[in-house]
Design a protein that fits this description.
mainly alpha
């Protein structure tokens, strides 16, 4: 008979029974868990405490998965946006560096070409809004009616290149009408064709710089062929330098070629308009001058006397 409140000693072969509220006590030789998120496995021959009253099965292995801690934070969804933008910037910078030293003159050429194209686009856009074909018709109508003063007044202060040329010719018709028209037309054509020579040079220069980068890259590649340790990496870097320089040079040339041809065609159209207007002005003023001379000749009395025989 045992005293009250004292449990009898467990026999060596009896299964362990866990009380419902008793905390689990780890054995002295059991290893501590390292990763709380990884599935925990108990060594063979041991079993976790089961429900009360159910003995553990010897040799059973039970895998338990632990849930993350309640205070753990999940990664923010916008954290991947910053690495993507940084990757795009690093891609451009890395390719620029891999292109070799020839990429610096190619970069200068690209900046100049972009600046010239933007300037010409704004100039031709302003010229489109400065056109005034209705006033040109009024000037020709006034000249046809013989009112040269009214034609000069209508063409004064206009921003249209054709009207500026006509005003210059009307104000210098007594000295040299044709010379004044030619000088004014030349000034307008020069303004319209500004920077076209620069664009023509860039279209030719950019592919040549790319070809030079190709040659320097291949020379760099073949210079490392004797070294077996660095041959593969060096040859690959040289070929990449050659291809990047060539692609950049061709890209700049293609970018500048299309605007160059467009602006050249616009200059040709303006030259045709100026020549047409100058020819019409010369013909109209010449016709009026001839008619005025005929009127003067018709009203002048003849003073000659006939000879008698």
């Amino acid at each position: 008979m045992t005293p009250s409140g004292v449990s009898p000693a467990a026999s060596p072969g009896a299964p362990a029974v866990a009380s419902p509220g008793a905390p689990a006590v780890a054995s002295p030789g059991a290893p501590a868990a390292v990763n709380p998120a990884a599935p925990a496995q108990l060594p063979v021959g041991t079993a976790p405490p089961g429900p009360p009253g159910i003995p553990a099965v010897p040799g059973a292995t039970i895998t338990a998965t632990l849930s993350p801690a309640p205070g753990a934070e999940s990664p923010a969804p916008g954290a991947a946006a910053a690495p993507a933008e940084a990757g795009a910037t690093n891609f451009l910078i890395d390719n620029f560096r891999k292109g070799g030293p020839i990429m610096w003159p190619i970069l200068i050429v690209s900046i100049i070409g972009l600046t010239v194209v933007i300037e010409r686009v704004f100039w031709w856009g302003g010229r489109w809004f400065r056109r005034d074909p209705k006033r040109i018709e009024k000037v020709f109508t006034a000249i046809e009616n013989g009112d040269v003063a009214e034609a000069s007044r209508l063409s004064r202060g206009s921003r249209d290149p054709v009207l500026r040329m006509m005003w210059n010719g009307l104000n210098h018709q007594h000295a040299s009408l044709q010379g004044a028209l030619q000088v004014a037309a030349g000034i307008e054509i020069k303004r319209a064709g500004r920077f076209l020579m620069v664009m023509d040079t860039l279209v030719t220069l950019a592919p040549l710089l790319g070809l030079l980068g190709t040659i320097t890259g291949l020379i760099k590649s073949f210079s490392f062929l004797g070294n077996e340790e660095l041959a593969v990496q060096a040859v690959t870097g040289g070929i990449a330098e050659a291809l990047i320089a060539t692609a950049c040079g061709l890209g700049i040339a293609i970018f500048a070629l299309v605007p160059f041809n467009f602006f050249t065609s616009r200059v040709s159209n303006l030259e045709f308009e100026l020549q047409t207007a100058a020819t019409n002005l010369e013909v109209m003023l010449g016709t009026q001058t001839a008619a005025r001379e005929m009127e003067i000749a018709g009203t002048t009395p003849t003073t000659g006397k006939g000879s008698s025989i």
